[in-house]
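Chains adopt folds. We examine one example:
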Amino acid sequence: ALSKASGTKLVMLGTGAGPNPTVPGRTRYMTSHVMVSNGSAYVLDCGLGVTNQFARTGVPFTAVRSIFITHHHPDHNIEYGPFILLGWVQDQNVRVSAAIVQHPPVQPALAYRFDFHDRSIVFSGDTAPIEAVARLAEGADILVHEALYVPALGAYVRDRIAKGSPIRFDAYMAHMEVDHSPVEDVGRIANAAGVQTLVLSHLTPAIDGIQDETWRHAAAKQFKGKIVVAGFNGAVIRNVNRYRKSISNRWSERVHKPNEALVRLRERYD
């Protein structure tokens, strides 16, 4: 059981983008995650369903030490109130850092990094592709990054319009591309950061018909490390490589060591 698992585990409680759980062809819950380490649990984002999904992990609610919210959109915070009523306190089991990302018009929107004793996990939150995420994730074991597959989104929106939805295609697509990260750019960010494992999550569109290999192939154009397409609700991300260096050494290198891929990424988006 996860409550007795050794090492740090990442559980994808919900991996779907957007606040509408009734969209046809969607079985993914709204965005939420839990990291379990040394018997303590840390929740990132509280989309609809997080409480029940957390209960299914078998981790006791008394193990929750902190809850983090990337930004205040309903698919990330709508169930924060019910969950927080269960109670939580902070501890010294993890070092947490954050960076401001780009998700207009929401300000601030945050990416988070969690450095545990045995591995580091970074979450992009909702964001356009920006250097700040690559910098925050530099040298991390796992980067969980939102991903937008533009061709499928375009087809999905056109289908909705054909069925009578009052969506303005050009305006909607422009908005999504300013607010979110095309999966090819996600691969570029993972490469610049030098992470070991890239987890694609908060998938847009959040429908079930897109094959995992489609997501993976697009990200792999720029990133040659391990790529995981976040499974359906409750998936546990296991078997990432152990630290080869101590947290303090990795942290020092992340802050001080030049990174040529980051320089190239900065030149691309400046």
Summary: The chain is about 30% helix and 25% strand.
